[in-house]
Specification:
This protein is α+β, with helices and mostly antiparallel strands. Helix content is 44%, strand content 15%. It has 21 helices and 20 strands.
Length: 638
Protein backbone atom coordinates (compact mmCIF):
# COMPACT_ATOMS: atom_id res chain seq x y z
CA UNK A 1 0.00 0.00 0.00
CA UNK A 2 1.41 3.40 -0.97
CA UNK A 3 1.92 6.18 1.56
CA UNK A 4 -1.11 8.24 0.38
CA UNK A 5 -3.46 5.27 0.75
CA UNK A 6 -1.99 4.59 4.18
CA UNK A 7 -2.65 8.18 5.26
CA UNK A 8 -6.24 7.94 4.00
CA UNK A 9 -6.77 4.66 5.87
CA UNK A 10 -5.42 6.22 9.09
CA UNK A 11 -7.75 9.21 8.66
CA UNK A 12 -10.85 7.08 8.03
CA UNK A 13 -10.14 4.81 10.99
CA UNK A 14 -10.99 7.71 13.33
CA UNK A 15 -14.58 8.05 12.09
CA UNK A 16 -17.70 5.88 11.96
CA UNK A 17 -18.60 3.75 10.14
CA UNK A 18 -14.99 3.11 9.07
CA UNK A 19 -13.89 2.48 12.65
CA UNK A 20 -16.01 -0.69 12.52
CA UNK A 21 -13.60 -2.10 9.91
CA UNK A 22 -10.18 -3.66 10.34
CA UNK A 23 -7.02 -2.05 9.02
CA UNK A 24 -6.73 -4.58 6.21
CA UNK A 25 -10.26 -3.75 5.04
CA UNK A 26 -9.59 -0.03 5.29
CA UNK A 27 -6.37 -0.41 3.33
CA UNK A 28 -8.22 -2.09 0.48
CA UNK A 29 -10.85 0.67 0.42
CA UNK A 30 -8.21 3.41 0.61
CA UNK A 31 -6.43 2.00 -2.42
CA UNK A 32 -9.55 2.64 -4.55
CA UNK A 33 -10.31 6.13 -3.20
CA UNK A 34 -10.01 9.15 -5.46
CA UNK A 35 -8.84 12.41 -3.90
CA UNK A 36 -10.93 15.37 -5.12
CA UNK A 37 -9.61 18.91 -4.67
CA UNK A 38 -12.29 21.64 -4.74
CA UNK A 39 -11.74 25.35 -5.09
CA UNK A 40 -13.80 27.84 -3.09
CA UNK A 41 -17.51 27.75 -4.08
CA UNK A 42 -16.94 24.83 -6.49
CA UNK A 43 -19.95 22.52 -6.94
CA UNK A 44 -19.39 18.79 -6.53
CA UNK A 45 -22.95 17.85 -7.48
CA UNK A 46 -26.23 19.72 -7.60
CA UNK A 47 -29.96 19.08 -7.45
CA UNK A 48 -31.19 16.75 -10.24
CA UNK A 49 -27.66 15.68 -11.24
CA UNK A 50 -27.27 12.03 -12.12
CA UNK A 51 -25.94 10.00 -9.20
CA UNK A 52 -22.18 9.53 -8.99
CA UNK A 53 -20.55 6.15 -8.61
CA UNK A 54 -19.05 7.25 -5.26
CA UNK A 55 -20.01 8.76 -1.96
CA UNK A 56 -17.83 11.30 -0.18
CA UNK A 57 -15.93 12.00 3.04
CA UNK A 58 -14.63 15.47 3.86
CA UNK A 59 -10.87 15.40 4.42
CA UNK A 60 -10.39 19.15 4.91
CA UNK A 61 -12.41 22.34 4.49
CA UNK A 62 -16.19 22.67 4.65
CA UNK A 63 -18.84 21.44 2.22
CA UNK A 64 -22.24 23.15 2.25
CA UNK A 65 -25.34 21.07 1.45
CA UNK A 66 -28.28 23.13 0.23
CA UNK A 67 -31.78 22.62 -1.15
CA UNK A 68 -34.27 24.66 -3.12
CA UNK A 69 -37.41 25.76 -1.28
CA UNK A 70 -39.88 28.36 -2.54
CA UNK A 71 -37.53 29.15 -5.45
CA UNK A 72 -34.71 30.05 -3.03
CA UNK A 73 -31.58 28.12 -2.13
CA UNK A 74 -31.47 27.27 1.57
CA UNK A 75 -28.44 25.96 3.47
CA UNK A 76 -29.30 22.57 4.94
CA UNK A 77 -26.09 21.47 6.59
CA UNK A 78 -22.35 22.02 6.73
CA UNK A 79 -19.98 19.06 6.46
CA UNK A 80 -16.66 19.31 8.32
CA UNK A 81 -13.68 16.88 8.24
CA UNK A 82 -14.87 13.35 8.96
CA UNK A 83 -18.43 14.01 7.75
CA UNK A 84 -19.94 11.75 5.09
CA UNK A 85 -22.30 13.02 2.41
CA UNK A 86 -23.65 12.00 -0.97
CA UNK A 87 -25.00 8.66 0.25
CA UNK A 88 -27.93 8.70 -2.15
CA UNK A 89 -26.38 6.18 -4.61
CA UNK A 90 -26.46 3.57 -1.82
CA UNK A 91 -30.19 3.76 -1.18
CA UNK A 92 -32.00 5.43 -4.07
CA UNK A 93 -31.99 5.45 -7.85
CA UNK A 94 -33.37 8.94 -8.53
CA UNK A 95 -31.10 11.95 -8.97
CA UNK A 96 -29.51 14.04 -6.24
CA UNK A 97 -31.99 16.05 -4.19
CA UNK A 98 -29.53 18.63 -2.90
CA UNK A 99 -26.43 20.56 -3.93
CA UNK A 100 -22.95 20.01 -2.49
CA UNK A 101 -20.64 23.02 -2.80
CA UNK A 102 -17.34 23.87 -1.12
CA UNK A 103 -17.53 26.88 1.19
CA UNK A 104 -13.76 27.22 1.00
CA UNK A 105 -10.90 25.29 -0.54
CA UNK A 106 -11.56 21.67 0.36
CA UNK A 107 -10.39 18.11 -0.15
CA UNK A 108 -12.87 15.23 -0.23
CA UNK A 109 -12.35 11.51 -0.62
CA UNK A 110 -14.53 9.85 -3.26
CA UNK A 111 -15.18 6.26 -2.16
CA UNK A 112 -16.47 4.03 -4.99
CA UNK A 113 -19.78 2.37 -4.15
CA UNK A 114 -18.69 -0.85 -5.82
CA UNK A 115 -15.60 -1.05 -3.62
CA UNK A 116 -17.41 -0.26 -0.37
CA UNK A 117 -20.60 -2.27 -0.88
CA UNK A 118 -19.08 -5.68 0.07
CA UNK A 119 -17.99 -4.32 3.43
CA UNK A 120 -21.50 -2.96 4.03
CA UNK A 121 -23.08 -6.30 3.20
CA UNK A 122 -20.72 -8.23 5.48
CA UNK A 123 -20.74 -5.82 8.42
CA UNK A 124 -24.15 -5.24 10.09
CA UNK A 125 -22.81 -2.29 12.13
CA UNK A 126 -21.74 -0.43 9.01
CA UNK A 127 -25.03 -1.17 7.24
CA UNK A 128 -27.15 -0.12 10.23
CA UNK A 129 -25.13 3.06 10.63
CA UNK A 130 -25.66 4.09 7.02
CA UNK A 131 -29.33 3.07 6.94
CA UNK A 132 -30.18 4.85 10.17
CA UNK A 133 -28.31 7.98 9.15
CA UNK A 134 -29.93 8.16 5.73
CA UNK A 135 -33.41 7.48 7.10
CA UNK A 136 -33.50 10.02 9.92
CA UNK A 137 -31.43 12.70 8.25
CA UNK A 138 -29.30 13.25 11.34
CA UNK A 139 -25.71 13.42 12.39
CA UNK A 140 -24.15 10.10 13.38
CA UNK A 141 -26.96 8.50 15.41
CA UNK A 142 -24.74 5.68 16.70
CA UNK A 143 -22.06 7.83 18.26
CA UNK A 144 -24.23 9.88 20.59
CA UNK A 145 -21.52 10.44 23.20
CA UNK A 146 -18.49 11.41 21.12
CA UNK A 147 -20.16 12.68 17.96
CA UNK A 148 -17.02 11.80 16.02
CA UNK A 149 -17.45 11.59 12.28
CA UNK A 150 -20.76 13.40 11.96
CA UNK A 151 -22.67 11.86 9.12
CA UNK A 152 -24.99 14.06 7.11
CA UNK A 153 -27.73 12.40 5.11
CA UNK A 154 -28.69 13.77 1.74
CA UNK A 155 -32.22 12.46 2.11
CA UNK A 156 -33.78 15.88 1.77
CA UNK A 157 -36.55 16.56 4.27
CA UNK A 158 -38.67 18.59 1.88
CA UNK A 159 -40.45 15.34 1.15
CA UNK A 160 -43.53 13.58 2.40
CA UNK A 161 -41.45 11.69 4.94
CA UNK A 162 -41.29 13.09 8.44
CA UNK A 163 -37.87 14.32 9.49
CA UNK A 164 -36.23 14.67 12.85
CA UNK A 165 -37.93 18.06 13.10
CA UNK A 166 -41.36 16.44 13.35
CA UNK A 167 -41.40 17.20 17.06
CA UNK A 168 -42.39 20.74 16.11
CA UNK A 169 -45.66 19.36 14.78
CA UNK A 170 -48.73 18.60 16.87
CA UNK A 171 -48.78 15.26 18.62
CA UNK A 172 -50.93 12.22 18.01
CA UNK A 173 -52.42 11.07 21.31
CA UNK A 174 -55.26 9.11 22.86
CA UNK A 175 -58.46 11.05 22.09
CA UNK A 176 -60.65 8.56 23.97
CA UNK A 177 -59.06 8.40 27.40
CA UNK A 178 -60.41 6.27 30.19
CA UNK A 179 -62.34 8.44 32.68
CA UNK A 180 -64.00 7.90 36.03
CA UNK A 181 -65.29 9.79 39.09
CA UNK A 182 -63.90 10.20 42.60
CA UNK A 183 -66.44 7.81 44.14
CA UNK A 184 -65.25 4.63 42.41
CA UNK A 185 -63.00 2.19 44.29
CA UNK A 186 -59.41 1.41 43.38
CA UNK A 187 -60.36 -2.21 42.65
CA UNK A 188 -62.96 -1.14 40.10
CA UNK A 189 -60.50 1.27 38.48
CA UNK A 190 -57.88 -1.48 38.22
CA UNK A 191 -60.39 -3.74 36.48
CA UNK A 192 -61.32 -0.96 34.03
CA UNK A 193 -57.66 -0.23 33.20
CA UNK A 194 -56.97 -3.95 32.71
CA UNK A 195 -59.99 -4.41 30.45
CA UNK A 196 -59.09 -1.32 28.40
CA UNK A 197 -55.39 -2.23 28.14
CA UNK A 198 -54.40 1.26 29.26
CA UNK A 199 -51.93 2.46 31.88
CA UNK A 200 -53.79 5.57 33.00
CA UNK A 201 -57.23 6.86 33.93
CA UNK A 202 -58.50 10.41 34.45
CA UNK A 203 -60.62 11.32 37.44
CA UNK A 204 -63.16 13.97 36.44
CA UNK A 205 -65.94 16.15 37.79
CA UNK A 206 -68.40 17.30 35.11
CA UNK A 207 -65.80 16.17 32.53
CA UNK A 208 -63.24 18.55 34.04
CA UNK A 209 -60.01 16.75 35.05
CA UNK A 210 -59.21 16.83 38.76
CA UNK A 211 -56.69 13.98 38.96
CA UNK A 212 -54.98 11.08 37.22
CA UNK A 213 -53.98 7.55 38.24
CA UNK A 214 -51.33 5.56 36.38
CA UNK A 215 -49.80 2.09 36.61
CA UNK A 216 -47.02 3.67 38.67
CA UNK A 217 -49.56 4.76 41.28
CA UNK A 218 -50.93 1.22 41.40
CA UNK A 219 -47.46 -0.23 41.96
CA UNK A 220 -46.18 2.31 44.49
CA UNK A 221 -49.35 2.90 46.48
CA UNK A 222 -51.39 -0.32 46.23
CA UNK A 223 -48.96 -3.18 45.61
CA UNK A 224 -46.80 -1.89 48.48
CA UNK A 225 -49.77 -2.02 50.84
CA UNK A 226 -49.97 1.71 51.54
CA UNK A 227 -53.66 1.75 50.59
CA UNK A 228 -56.24 -1.05 50.42
CA UNK A 229 -57.97 -1.69 47.10
CA UNK A 230 -61.34 -0.95 48.69
CA UNK A 231 -60.78 2.80 49.20
CA UNK A 232 -61.94 5.35 46.64
CA UNK A 233 -59.66 6.38 43.79
CA UNK A 234 -59.19 9.97 44.99
CA UNK A 235 -56.96 8.63 47.80
CA UNK A 236 -54.17 7.76 45.34
CA UNK A 237 -54.75 10.09 42.42
CA UNK A 238 -52.17 12.70 41.43
CA UNK A 239 -53.69 16.17 41.55
CA UNK A 240 -53.81 18.68 39.98
CA UNK A 241 -53.39 17.35 36.47
CA UNK A 242 -50.91 19.08 34.15
CA UNK A 243 -53.06 20.31 31.25
CA UNK A 244 -52.22 21.50 27.73
CA UNK A 245 -53.93 22.67 24.56
CA UNK A 246 -54.56 20.09 21.87
CA UNK A 247 -52.04 21.64 19.44
CA UNK A 248 -49.11 21.25 21.84
CA UNK A 249 -45.90 20.22 20.08
CA UNK A 250 -43.73 17.27 20.98
CA UNK A 251 -40.95 19.53 22.24
CA UNK A 252 -43.27 21.55 24.47
CA UNK A 253 -44.90 18.39 25.84
CA UNK A 254 -41.53 16.89 26.76
CA UNK A 255 -40.39 20.08 28.46
CA UNK A 256 -43.63 20.21 30.47
CA UNK A 257 -43.24 16.60 31.59
CA UNK A 258 -39.65 17.24 32.66
CA UNK A 259 -40.54 20.45 34.44
CA UNK A 260 -43.47 18.94 36.35
CA UNK A 261 -41.95 15.48 36.81
CA UNK A 262 -44.99 13.71 35.31
CA UNK A 263 -45.46 11.05 32.66
CA UNK A 264 -48.88 12.13 31.36
CA UNK A 265 -50.46 15.37 30.19
CA UNK A 266 -54.19 15.99 29.95
CA UNK A 267 -55.36 17.72 26.77
CA UNK A 268 -58.30 20.06 27.40
CA UNK A 269 -60.37 22.41 25.33
CA UNK A 270 -58.67 25.61 26.50
CA UNK A 271 -55.50 24.14 28.02
CA UNK A 272 -56.66 24.50 31.65
CA UNK A 273 -58.22 22.12 34.18
CA UNK A 274 -61.45 24.14 34.01
CA UNK A 275 -62.47 22.94 30.57
CA UNK A 276 -63.52 19.68 28.90
CA UNK A 277 -61.12 16.78 28.44
CA UNK A 278 -59.97 16.14 24.86
CA UNK A 279 -57.42 13.38 25.46
CA UNK A 280 -54.25 12.23 27.23
CA UNK A 281 -50.63 12.43 26.06
CA UNK A 282 -48.38 9.78 27.54
CA UNK A 283 -44.61 9.47 27.65
CA UNK A 284 -44.98 6.58 25.24
CA UNK A 285 -46.62 8.92 22.70
CA UNK A 286 -43.54 11.10 22.82
CA UNK A 287 -41.16 8.17 22.44
CA UNK A 288 -43.09 6.95 19.43
CA UNK A 289 -43.10 10.43 17.88
CA UNK A 290 -39.40 11.10 18.20
CA UNK A 291 -36.58 9.75 20.27
CA UNK A 292 -34.16 12.63 19.79
CA UNK A 293 -35.86 15.87 20.77
CA UNK A 294 -35.19 18.94 22.95
CA UNK A 295 -36.44 17.03 25.98
CA UNK A 296 -33.93 14.26 25.31
CA UNK A 297 -31.16 16.83 24.87
CA UNK A 298 -32.00 18.32 28.26
CA UNK A 299 -31.81 14.88 29.86
CA UNK A 300 -28.40 14.37 28.25
CA UNK A 301 -27.27 17.76 29.54
CA UNK A 302 -28.25 16.79 33.08
CA UNK A 303 -26.13 13.63 32.79
CA UNK A 304 -23.10 15.36 31.24
CA UNK A 305 -19.89 15.41 33.29
CA UNK A 306 -17.51 17.45 31.12
CA UNK A 307 -17.49 20.65 29.05
CA UNK A 308 -16.72 18.49 26.00
CA UNK A 309 -19.98 16.60 26.40
CA UNK A 310 -21.90 19.86 26.79
CA UNK A 311 -20.26 21.31 23.69
CA UNK A 312 -21.29 18.27 21.65
CA UNK A 313 -24.90 18.77 22.75
CA UNK A 314 -24.77 22.49 21.93
CA UNK A 315 -23.49 21.61 18.45
CA UNK A 316 -26.59 19.46 18.00
CA UNK A 317 -28.73 22.39 19.10
CA UNK A 318 -27.19 24.44 16.30
CA UNK A 319 -28.26 21.73 13.85
CA UNK A 320 -31.74 21.78 15.37
CA UNK A 321 -31.99 25.56 14.85
CA UNK A 322 -30.67 25.26 11.29
CA UNK A 323 -33.21 22.65 10.31
CA UNK A 324 -36.14 24.26 12.09
CA UNK A 325 -35.54 27.53 10.26
CA UNK A 326 -35.27 25.63 7.00
CA UNK A 327 -38.62 24.01 7.81
CA UNK A 328 -40.12 27.48 8.37
CA UNK A 329 -40.87 26.75 12.03
CA UNK A 330 -41.96 30.10 13.59
CA UNK A 331 -38.97 31.87 15.11
CA UNK A 332 -40.90 32.62 18.30
CA UNK A 333 -41.24 28.86 18.79
CA UNK A 334 -37.53 28.32 18.12
CA UNK A 335 -36.71 30.98 20.72
CA UNK A 336 -38.81 29.14 23.32
CA UNK A 337 -37.27 25.74 22.68
CA UNK A 338 -33.68 26.92 22.31
CA UNK A 339 -33.86 29.07 25.44
CA UNK A 340 -34.84 26.05 27.55
CA UNK A 341 -31.88 24.07 26.21
CA UNK A 342 -29.49 27.01 26.70
CA UNK A 343 -30.80 27.40 30.23
CA UNK A 344 -30.07 23.73 30.95
CA UNK A 345 -26.54 24.07 29.51
CA UNK A 346 -25.77 27.14 31.60
CA UNK A 347 -27.21 25.55 34.72
CA UNK A 348 -25.13 22.41 34.21
CA UNK A 349 -21.99 24.52 33.80
CA UNK A 350 -22.64 26.06 37.24
CA UNK A 351 -23.38 22.62 38.73
CA UNK A 352 -20.10 21.17 37.41
CA UNK A 353 -18.22 24.09 38.97
CA UNK A 354 -19.87 23.46 42.33
CA UNK A 355 -19.07 19.74 42.10
CA UNK A 356 -15.44 20.70 41.63
CA UNK A 357 -15.22 23.46 44.26
CA UNK A 358 -17.50 22.02 46.92
CA UNK A 359 -20.70 23.40 48.43
CA UNK A 360 -21.17 27.19 48.33
CA UNK A 361 -20.62 28.99 51.65
CA UNK A 362 -23.80 31.04 51.13
CA UNK A 363 -26.94 31.07 49.05
CA UNK A 364 -26.61 32.78 45.70
CA UNK A 365 -28.14 33.35 42.28
CA UNK A 366 -26.41 33.15 38.90
CA UNK A 367 -28.30 35.37 36.46
CA UNK A 368 -27.92 35.34 32.70
CA UNK A 369 -28.17 38.86 31.29
CA UNK A 370 -28.31 40.32 27.78
CA UNK A 371 -29.48 37.94 25.05
CA UNK A 372 -29.36 35.01 27.50
CA UNK A 373 -31.53 36.95 29.93
CA UNK A 374 -33.97 37.77 27.11
CA UNK A 375 -34.02 34.14 25.89
CA UNK A 376 -32.96 35.28 22.44
CA UNK A 377 -29.62 33.49 22.07
CA UNK A 378 -29.99 31.25 19.03
CA UNK A 379 -26.41 31.64 17.84
CA UNK A 380 -23.34 31.07 19.97
CA UNK A 381 -22.84 34.71 20.91
CA UNK A 382 -20.80 35.88 23.91
CA UNK A 383 -21.83 35.09 27.47
CA UNK A 384 -23.19 37.73 29.86
CA UNK A 385 -23.90 37.05 33.53
CA UNK A 386 -23.89 38.40 37.07
CA UNK A 387 -23.47 36.58 40.38
CA UNK A 388 -25.33 37.66 43.51
CA UNK A 389 -24.69 36.06 46.89
CA UNK A 390 -26.65 36.63 50.09
CA UNK A 391 -25.39 39.06 52.72
CA UNK A 392 -22.92 37.52 55.17
CA UNK A 393 -21.09 38.72 58.27
CA UNK A 394 -18.32 41.23 57.58
CA UNK A 395 -15.57 38.87 58.77
CA UNK A 396 -16.75 36.21 56.30
CA UNK A 397 -17.30 38.50 53.31
CA UNK A 398 -13.84 38.17 51.76
CA UNK A 399 -13.74 34.36 51.94
CA UNK A 400 -17.29 34.09 50.60
CA UNK A 401 -16.56 36.43 47.70
CA UNK A 402 -13.33 34.55 46.91
CA UNK A 403 -15.33 31.32 46.61
CA UNK A 404 -17.88 32.87 44.27
CA UNK A 405 -15.19 34.49 42.14
CA UNK A 406 -13.64 31.04 41.74
CA UNK A 407 -17.09 29.68 40.91
CA UNK A 408 -17.52 32.46 38.36
CA UNK A 409 -14.15 31.80 36.73
CA UNK A 410 -14.73 28.05 36.51
CA UNK A 411 -18.23 28.48 35.11
CA UNK A 412 -17.28 31.08 32.50
CA UNK A 413 -14.31 28.93 31.46
CA UNK A 414 -16.66 25.96 31.01
CA UNK A 415 -19.08 28.08 28.99
CA UNK A 416 -16.22 29.24 26.80
CA UNK A 417 -15.31 25.61 26.09
CA UNK A 418 -18.93 24.95 25.15
CA UNK A 419 -18.75 27.79 22.62
CA UNK A 420 -20.04 30.87 24.49
CA UNK A 421 -17.15 33.32 24.11
CA UNK A 422 -16.24 35.70 26.93
CA UNK A 423 -18.02 39.05 26.99
CA UNK A 424 -15.63 41.66 25.52
CA UNK A 425 -16.92 44.18 28.09
CA UNK A 426 -16.33 41.81 30.99
CA UNK A 427 -20.02 41.53 31.92
CA UNK A 428 -19.59 38.12 33.59
CA UNK A 429 -19.93 36.58 37.04
CA UNK A 430 -16.16 35.95 37.02
CA UNK A 431 -15.52 39.72 37.14
CA UNK A 432 -15.23 41.03 40.69
CA UNK A 433 -17.31 44.06 39.64
CA UNK A 434 -20.26 41.82 38.83
CA UNK A 435 -19.85 39.26 41.62
CA UNK A 436 -21.01 40.74 44.91
CA UNK A 437 -23.52 40.58 47.73
CA UNK A 438 -27.22 41.29 47.42
CA UNK A 439 -26.90 44.55 49.37
CA UNK A 440 -24.08 45.70 47.08
CA UNK A 441 -26.18 44.84 44.03
CA UNK A 442 -29.16 46.75 45.41
CA UNK A 443 -26.89 49.78 45.90
CA UNK A 444 -25.62 49.30 42.36
CA UNK A 445 -29.10 49.35 40.84
CA UNK A 446 -30.08 52.30 43.07
CA UNK A 447 -27.11 54.29 41.80
CA UNK A 448 -27.71 53.38 38.17
CA UNK A 449 -31.35 54.36 38.26
CA UNK A 450 -31.26 57.43 40.52
CA UNK A 451 -28.05 59.03 39.23
CA UNK A 452 -27.56 57.58 35.73
CA UNK A 453 -25.34 60.45 34.55
CA UNK A 454 -22.79 59.82 37.30
CA UNK A 455 -22.75 56.07 36.60
CA UNK A 456 -23.04 56.04 32.81
CA UNK A 457 -19.55 54.56 32.41
CA UNK A 458 -20.60 51.20 33.82
CA UNK A 459 -24.37 51.41 33.21
CA UNK A 460 -25.37 48.97 30.51
CA UNK A 461 -29.02 48.37 29.68
CA UNK A 462 -28.35 44.61 29.50
CA UNK A 463 -28.36 44.56 33.32
CA UNK A 464 -32.12 45.07 33.09
CA UNK A 465 -32.58 41.89 31.01
CA UNK A 466 -31.98 38.97 33.35
CA UNK A 467 -33.07 35.38 33.88
CA UNK A 468 -32.14 33.16 36.82
CA UNK A 469 -29.94 30.28 35.70
CA UNK A 470 -29.12 28.71 39.05
CA UNK A 471 -29.77 29.43 42.70
CA UNK A 472 -32.26 31.25 44.90
CA UNK A 473 -35.33 32.70 43.20
CA UNK A 474 -35.77 35.09 46.15
CA UNK A 475 -32.50 36.81 45.23
CA UNK A 476 -33.69 37.49 41.69
CA UNK A 477 -37.02 38.69 43.12
CA UNK A 478 -35.16 41.16 45.33
CA UNK A 479 -33.43 42.65 42.28
CA UNK A 480 -36.77 42.94 40.47
CA UNK A 481 -38.30 44.65 43.51
CA UNK A 482 -35.63 47.36 43.68
CA UNK A 483 -35.85 48.00 39.93
CA UNK A 484 -39.62 48.43 39.90
CA UNK A 485 -39.51 50.46 43.10
CA UNK A 486 -37.15 52.92 41.41
CA UNK A 487 -39.04 53.20 38.10
CA UNK A 488 -41.96 54.91 39.79
CA UNK A 489 -40.09 58.22 39.98
CA UNK A 490 -37.26 57.86 37.51
CA UNK A 491 -37.65 60.61 34.95
CA UNK A 492 -33.87 60.97 34.77
CA UNK A 493 -33.38 57.24 34.32
CA UNK A 494 -35.92 57.07 31.46
CA UNK A 495 -34.27 60.14 29.95
CA UNK A 496 -30.99 58.19 29.92
CA UNK A 497 -32.52 54.95 28.58
CA UNK A 498 -34.53 56.81 25.95
CA UNK A 499 -31.44 58.53 24.59
CA UNK A 500 -29.58 55.21 24.79
CA UNK A 501 -32.29 53.58 22.66
CA UNK A 502 -31.88 56.31 20.01
CA UNK A 503 -28.07 56.47 20.15
CA UNK A 504 -27.40 54.77 16.81
CA UNK A 505 -27.93 56.32 13.42
CA UNK A 506 -30.84 55.24 11.26
CA UNK A 507 -30.39 51.87 9.54
CA UNK A 508 -31.22 53.56 6.22
CA UNK A 509 -29.75 56.68 4.64
CA UNK A 510 -31.80 59.64 3.44
CA UNK A 511 -31.95 57.96 0.03
CA UNK A 512 -33.29 54.69 1.57
CA UNK A 513 -30.04 52.82 1.15
CA UNK A 514 -28.56 50.63 3.87
CA UNK A 515 -26.32 52.48 6.31
CA UNK A 516 -23.30 50.19 6.02
CA UNK A 517 -19.98 49.98 7.85
CA UNK A 518 -17.65 52.46 6.19
CA UNK A 519 -14.23 51.01 7.05
CA UNK A 520 -12.42 48.09 8.62
CA UNK A 521 -12.94 44.34 8.42
CA UNK A 522 -16.68 44.63 7.80
CA UNK A 523 -16.57 47.48 5.29
CA UNK A 524 -19.75 47.76 3.17
CA UNK A 525 -21.59 45.25 5.38
CA UNK A 526 -24.79 46.00 7.30
CA UNK A 527 -24.52 45.83 11.10
CA UNK A 528 -27.92 44.26 11.78
CA UNK A 529 -27.30 43.98 15.52
CA UNK A 530 -26.40 47.62 16.19
CA UNK A 531 -28.47 49.32 13.49
CA UNK A 532 -31.64 47.24 13.62
CA UNK A 533 -32.02 44.76 16.48
CA UNK A 534 -30.63 46.78 19.38
CA UNK A 535 -32.95 49.78 18.83
CA UNK A 536 -35.93 47.40 18.96
CA UNK A 537 -34.55 45.58 22.01
CA UNK A 538 -33.83 48.87 23.79
CA UNK A 539 -37.23 50.30 22.90
CA UNK A 540 -39.12 47.25 24.15
CA UNK A 541 -37.20 47.27 27.42
CA UNK A 542 -37.74 51.02 27.89
CA UNK A 543 -41.51 50.85 27.45
CA UNK A 544 -41.89 47.69 29.58
CA UNK A 545 -40.07 49.36 32.46
CA UNK A 546 -42.18 52.50 32.10
CA UNK A 547 -45.42 50.47 32.10
CA UNK A 548 -44.03 48.33 34.97
CA UNK A 549 -44.50 45.11 33.02
CA UNK A 550 -42.78 42.43 35.09
CA UNK A 551 -41.49 38.95 34.30
CA UNK A 552 -41.29 39.36 30.49
CA UNK A 553 -37.80 39.74 29.05
CA UNK A 554 -38.06 38.45 25.49
CA UNK A 555 -38.31 41.35 23.01
CA UNK A 556 -41.01 39.75 20.86
CA UNK A 557 -43.14 38.96 23.92
CA UNK A 558 -42.50 42.42 25.36
CA UNK A 559 -43.92 44.09 22.26
CA UNK A 560 -46.91 41.74 22.34
CA UNK A 561 -47.58 42.63 25.97
CA UNK A 562 -47.14 46.35 25.25
CA UNK A 563 -49.84 46.16 22.60
CA UNK A 564 -52.21 45.10 25.39
CA UNK A 565 -50.95 47.56 28.00
CA UNK A 566 -50.98 50.53 25.59
CA UNK A 567 -53.74 49.78 23.03
CA UNK A 568 -53.52 53.30 21.59
CA UNK A 569 -50.18 52.40 20.03
CA UNK A 570 -50.84 48.67 19.60
CA UNK A 571 -50.19 48.75 15.85
CA UNK A 572 -46.70 50.17 16.34
CA UNK A 573 -45.83 47.55 18.96
CA UNK A 574 -47.17 44.65 16.89
CA UNK A 575 -45.29 45.86 13.81
CA UNK A 576 -42.12 46.04 15.91
CA UNK A 577 -42.73 42.51 17.20
CA UNK A 578 -42.90 41.10 13.67
CA UNK A 579 -39.93 43.22 12.58
CA UNK A 580 -37.88 41.80 15.44
CA UNK A 581 -38.59 38.22 14.32
CA UNK A 582 -37.76 38.99 10.70
CA UNK A 583 -34.49 40.72 11.59
CA UNK A 584 -33.56 37.94 14.03
CA UNK A 585 -34.06 35.40 11.28
CA UNK A 586 -31.78 37.36 8.93
CA UNK A 587 -29.09 37.46 11.60
CA UNK A 588 -29.46 33.79 12.47
CA UNK A 589 -29.23 32.66 8.85
CA UNK A 590 -26.16 34.82 8.34
CA UNK A 591 -24.54 33.33 11.44
CA UNK A 592 -25.34 29.75 10.48
CA UNK A 593 -24.04 30.28 6.97
CA UNK A 594 -20.72 31.75 8.07
CA UNK A 595 -20.16 30.17 11.50
CA UNK A 596 -20.33 33.64 13.06
CA UNK A 597 -22.58 35.61 15.39
CA UNK A 598 -24.40 36.93 12.32
CA UNK A 599 -23.92 40.59 13.26
CA UNK A 600 -22.74 41.73 9.85
CA UNK A 601 -24.88 41.05 6.78
CA UNK A 602 -23.12 40.76 3.43
CA UNK A 603 -25.66 42.62 1.34
CA UNK A 604 -24.17 41.50 -1.97
CA UNK A 605 -25.11 37.93 -1.06
CA UNK A 606 -28.79 38.79 -0.54
CA UNK A 607 -31.31 38.40 -3.32
CA UNK A 608 -33.30 41.43 -4.43
CA UNK A 609 -36.37 40.01 -2.66
CA UNK A 610 -34.44 39.51 0.60
CA UNK A 611 -33.10 43.06 0.47
CA UNK A 612 -36.66 44.34 0.18
CA UNK A 613 -37.75 42.11 3.09
CA UNK A 614 -34.92 43.50 5.16
CA UNK A 615 -35.81 47.11 4.32
CA UNK A 616 -39.49 46.50 5.08
CA UNK A 617 -38.56 45.07 8.48
CA UNK A 618 -36.75 48.32 9.30
CA UNK A 619 -39.82 50.49 8.63
CA UNK A 620 -41.49 50.17 12.10
CA UNK A 621 -38.34 51.50 13.76
CA UNK A 622 -39.19 55.06 12.70
CA UNK A 623 -42.61 54.86 14.40
CA UNK A 624 -40.98 53.44 17.55
CA UNK A 625 -38.44 56.28 17.56
CA UNK A 626 -41.19 58.88 17.31
CA UNK A 627 -43.11 57.17 20.13
CA UNK A 628 -40.04 57.27 22.38
CA UNK A 629 -39.50 60.97 21.66
CA UNK A 630 -43.12 61.82 22.38
CA UNK A 631 -43.42 59.82 25.63
CA UNK A 632 -40.12 60.55 27.37
CA UNK A 633 -38.43 63.84 28.21
CA UNK A 634 -35.19 63.37 26.31
CA UNK A 635 -33.33 66.46 27.44
CA UNK A 636 -30.33 66.06 29.76
CA UNK A 637 -28.65 63.19 27.92
CA UNK A 638 -29.57 64.26 24.38
Amino acid sequence: MNSIAEQIADFLSEYPPFNFLGFEELSKIASDIKVVVLEKNQTLFQINDLLHDSFYVVASGVINLSVISDSEETLLNKCAPGDIFGLRPFFAKNNYMMTAKSREEAIVYAIPIVSFRPFVANNPEVLNFLLESFAVNTRNPKDKENLIGKLISDNVFYSDQQSEMQYFQSLTYNINPLKTTVNITIQDVAQQMTASLTNNILICENDYPIGIVTDTDMRTKIATGRFPITVTIDKIMSSPVVTVLENVSLAEAQLLMLKNNVTHLCVTQDGTDRSYVKGVISEHDLIVAQANSPGVLIKEIKRSQTPKELKQIRDRVTDLIQKSITKNVPLSHIFNITSEINLALLKRAVELSILDLGSPPARFAWLGIGSQGRKEQLLLTDQDSILIFEDVAADKYRDVKDYFLKLGKKTTATLEKIGYSSCPNGHMGSNMLWCKSLTDWIKQYDNWMNTPGENSADLSSIFFDYEIIFGEQKIEDAISSIIFKNVKNSTLFFDFLGNDALRDNSPLTFFKKFNVVEEGEHKDQFDIKTRALMPLIDGARLFCLSFEIKGINNTFQRFKQLSIADPKHAETYLNCAEAFLTLSKFRTLEGLKNDSDGQYIKLEELSKIDKEKLKNALAPMRDLEELIKSKFQLTQFS
